Automatic annotation (TrEMBL):
One of its GO terms (biological process) is negative regulation of autophagy. It comes from the Eukaryota. One of its GO terms (cellular component) is cytoplasm. It comes from Pelobates cultripes. SUPFAM superfamilies: (Phosphotyrosine protein) phosphatases II (SSF52799), PH domain-like (SSF50729). PROSITE patterns: PPASE_MYOTUBULARIN (PS51339). Transmembrane segments: none annotated. InterPro entries: Myotubularin, Myotubularin-like_Pase_dom, PH-like_dom_sf, Prot-tyrosine_phosphatase-like. Belongs to the protein-tyrosine phosphatase family. Non-receptor class myotubularin subfamily. This is Myotubularin phosphatase domain-containing protein. Residues 145-520 form the Myotubularin phosphatase domain.
Length: 547
């Protein structure tokens, strides 16, 4: 299929475009394979050489259209009888970064054709037809920024402090777990044969592996998928041995199941479940449920709807915000991440985290806990490494989960904004500890944008195996390579950053958590005062450095 086949009308004159943060423009609207752009008409009636409006089709979440028939008349000027229709229409594009763009288009047919074209081009099924495979800016270098972090590099950071762990290549060519990376960190005493048998006992082959080593006391954080105990209460000696070998010292470990006890029990009917206490006497099981799947997606949709509902009163706004349950999800995520950190830091115990598949709430919890405990993860470089390890290499299915954001009511059952929830929690931490993060809010907003729609291939596909199949590293550019350029990086750093070697304990009190205005309301609230405040902060920081 050629993308040009999806373009029903490629160009329309006298289109009026209203876009947040830009003045209203009128000009020629052009539809290309990957972009919608407007060539504005200059004051003297000549078209400008460059467009002020470029929109990537994949930025569009939903397309809404309406047409108005102005009238019909008979055309007999050229000796033949024909009916000519005149009219106009509007196309409203609701974008994944929460922009709402209005297009006023002359002509009913043109309006419908533009809407259909954008709808088709914004929902391509083939990964290799998406823009990252075509994006080649001037001076681009394929391979720059790939890979961001490797298992070996992560292992070497703590290898000198303990010899209890090793890097295993048991998953070479993704043979035993398609969603794990090729190399994983496991107890040194466990053979690859033990790992293979343990993998068969965990959903999707996601057996317990190390994702964080706490240097303060040597405790570790593990993650996996649920055990496949089923209704027959199956057990696996190799899985038991693997978990017991991961323990440090004589204290029992904690298994944090991100489902309720009832949900874990119900999972047994489908072959899953949770660890049986009698089979894992050295581990204490704690159920700490988090919303997931459709429930979490609906929470985000209700929040976006509440934010963009016109002219609502304060009481209604607060009621809609509370009903969305988004802030409740933020609170629960930070609470459980704090519990994991407390088990490791204060109780001196190892922790295993899993839910069902181990690719969603599990990764949300392990990454947040590391951000709370690890000073390295709060640096510019370390945070990027964290995202690479805990989300990309760990197999979060970005292609399935982040197909759309929060506008559409009709969605795939696979969509769920776990990564968006993670970024919101990160922002809450930057508010509560404004000097402890080396990155700023603009960086988090940029990640939120690129995870849903991007010119870069970093967040494409659902796991490392798929990215290898589609040769993403060889055929697309890395987002990390772009963000680390000298032109981009200074705009994304926190000027107030001071390294904090301590664990940062988040508060989940109602007065401590706020709606993330910088993302959810950034196209609704004036940004001038915020920009002036940040400019003043930069000036003060520069003055303090000069003294």
């Amino acid at each position: 299929m050629e993308l040009s086949d999806l373009i029903q009308t490629s160009q329309v004159d006298n289109v009026r475009v209203s876009c947040p943060m830009l003045p209203t423009m009128t000009g020629t609207l052009c539809v290309s394979s990957h972009h919608l752009l407007l060539c504005p008409v200059a004051e003297k009636g000549t078209k400008q050489e460059e467009s002020d409006f470029w929109l990537l089709h994949s930025d569009v979440d939903t397309v809404e259209k309406s047409v108005f028939n102005i009238g019909m008349f008979q055309n007999t000027d050229y000796g033949h009888d024909g009916t000519v229709k005149s009219g106009m229409g509007t196309v409203t594009l609701k974008c994944k970064d929460l922009r709402v763009i209005h297009l006023e288009i002359p002509g009913m047919e043109e309006t419908l054709n533009i809407a259909r074209s954008v709808q088709a081009l914004s929902s391509l099924n083939s990964i290799t037809l998406t823009y990252p495979f075509f994006h080649r800016p001037l001076g681009c270098i394929l391979g720059k920024g790939w890979p961001r972090d490797t298992t070996e590099n992560f292992y070497q950071r703590f290898a000198a402090e303990t010899d209890a762990w090793r890097v295993s290549e048991v998953n070479e060519e993704f043979k035993i777990c398609p969603s794990y990376p090729a190399k994983v960190i496991v107890p040194r005493s466990c053979s690859d044969d033990t790992l293979k048998k343990a993998a068969k006992f965990r959903q999707g082959g996601r057996f317990p592996i190390l994702c964080y080593y706490h240097r303060t006391n040597g405790m570790v954080l593990l993650r996996s998928a649920q055990p496949m105990v089923g209704t027959s209460r199956r057990c696996c000696e190799e899985d038991n041995a693997l978990l017991d070998e991961a323990l440090v010292g004589e204290l029992p470990g904690f298994i944090i199941d991100t489902r309720s006890a009832q949900e874990a029990k119900q999972a047994r009917s489908a072959g899953g479940g949770t660890e049986k206490k009698s089979r894992y006497p050295n581990w204490r099981i704690l159920h700490r449920p988090l919303e997931r799947g459709q429930a979490l997606q609906e929470s985000l949709t209700r929040l976006v709807t509440a934010c963009y509902e016109p002219s609502q009163l304060m009481n209604r706004w607060l009621s809609r915000l509370q009903a969305s349950r988004w802030m409740s999800n933020v609170k629960e995520a930070l609470s459980i991440a704090g519990l994991i950190s407390e088990c490791i830091e204060r109780e001196g115990a190892c922790v295993l985290v899993h839910g069902e598949e181990g690719t969603d709430n599990t990764l949300l919890m392990t990454s947040l806990a590391q951000l709370i405990m690890s000073p390295e993860c709060r640096t510019w470089e370390g945070f990027q490494d964290l995202l690479e390890r805990e989300w990309l290499q760990a197999g979060h299915p970005f292609q399935l989960r982040c197909a759309r954001l929060g506008w559409s009511q009709s969605r795939s059952q696979h969509e769920s904004p776990h990564f968006m929830l993670f970024l919101d929690c990160c922002w809450q931490l930057t508010r509560q500890f404004p000097q402890s993060m080396e990155f700023n809010e603009a960086f988090l907003c940029m990640l939120a944008k690129h995870v849903y729609s991007s010119e870069y291939g970093t967040f494409l596909c659902n796991n490392e195996r798929e990215r290898n199949v589609y040769e993403v590293q060889d055929r697309t550019l890395s987002l990390w390579g772009f963000l680390n350029e000298s032109k981009q990086r200074p705009k994304l750093l926190n000027p107030m950053y001071k390294p904090n070697p301590l664990t940062i304990w988040p508060s989940v009190a109602p007065q401590s958590l706020q709606l993330w205005e910088g993302f959810f309301l950034r196209y609704l609230l004036p940004s001038k005062n915020t920009e002036l405040a940040w400019q003043r902060i930069l000036e003060l920081v520069e003055q303090s450095k000069s003294h």
